[in-house]
Amino acid sequence: MTVIIPESVTCTICDCISEQPILNSTNTFFGELDLDARPPEMMRSTMDTWVQKCPQCGYCYPDIARGKAEHKSVISSPEYAGQSQSGEYPGLANAFLCLALIHISDNEPVHAGKQYQRAAWVCDDNELSDRAVACRIKAVRWFEIAIERGESLTPGPQIEERELENLMMADLCRRVGWFDKVLHYCEEGINRTGNEEYLSYYSYEKELIQATDTRSHSIIPEQKQ
Does residue 85 register a pLDDT over 80? Predict the structure, then answer.
């Protein structure tokens, strides 16, 4: 059961008090992860609680009451203001894209990549395929910067991190249509794993690129969309 409660929150930047949705509890009983690590329901429908946006100054952060005062210079920038008010993306996608700019300013490529990926999910849900591709391209860019630094993209035990990381990168590239890069990530994963479950996932990715399929799919082939 998902429980979302409204809560009055004071913005770190402008002291505006606004009501924000707070995720009190949820579960993931209804399905499997997507190949790009998007969670199943009910967690999938809680994205509007993953980022808050101040209605007065436009500050976007997971918890605007616990943000950083130095972010004021970021939200004052033309790039941030333009993204915040963009009519090309749904409001929730804009919030994630603005949060990505915050993380970039903080030199946090993993978190920036995650926000671009989440914005892509919002665009998927709104059938904005071109916008979703644009967001995924940026997600791949920032995730690859993080990988070059030796940073982990996913939480959990180290071995599981590397497995999920490779699969997620492969699927991000597939959704963009970069099939050569998909094959690179799949072969890299296959060469360093003995995990039969992940071998099946990589095999599934290779089947999808052979079919030039760029759609969303669950990790379980029978549940593909």
Answer: yes
